[in-house]
Amino acid sequence: MDFTLTEERSMLRDMLGRFLAENYDHETRQKLLQAGETHNAEVFAALAELGVLGALFTEAQGGFGGAGFDIAVVFEELGRAGVIEPVLGNAALAGHMLASLANETQQELLAEVIAADLVLGFAHSEAGSRYDLSHVEATARLSGDAGREVITLEGVKTQVINGAAAQLFVVSARESGGAWGQNGISLFLVAADTPGVSVTTQGNIDCASGATRTLENVQLDATRRLGVGGQGYGAIEAAVAQATLAICAEALGAMEAAKALTVDYLKERKQFGMPIGKFQALQHRMADMLIEIEQARSAVVNLAGALDKPRLIREREVSATKNLIGRVGALVAEECIQMHGGIGMTGEYALSHYARRLTMIDHQFGDVDHHLERFIALKSA
Amino acid sequence: MDLNYTPQQEAFRAEVRAFLAENLPVALSEKVRLGKRISKADTETWNAIMNAQGWLAANWPKQYGGAEWDAVQRQIFEEEACLAHAPRLVPFGLSMLAPVLLQFGSEAQRQRFLPRILSGEDWWCQGYSEPGAGSDLAAVKTRAELEDDHYVVNGQKTWTTLGQHANWIFCLVRTNPDVKKQAGISFLLIDMTTPGVTVRPITLIDGEAEVNEVFFDNVRVPVENLVGEQDMGWPYAKYLLTHERTNIAGVGFSNAALATLKKVAAATMTGGRPLDQNPHFAGRMAQVEIDLMAMRTTNLRVVSAAAAGQAPGAESSMLKVKGTLIRQELTSLLRRAAGPDAMPFLPEYLDGGDNQDPMGPEHTAAAAPAYFNMRKLSIFGGSNEVQRSIIAKTILEL
Question: So what CATH class is B7-89?
Answer without folding.
Answer: mainly alpha
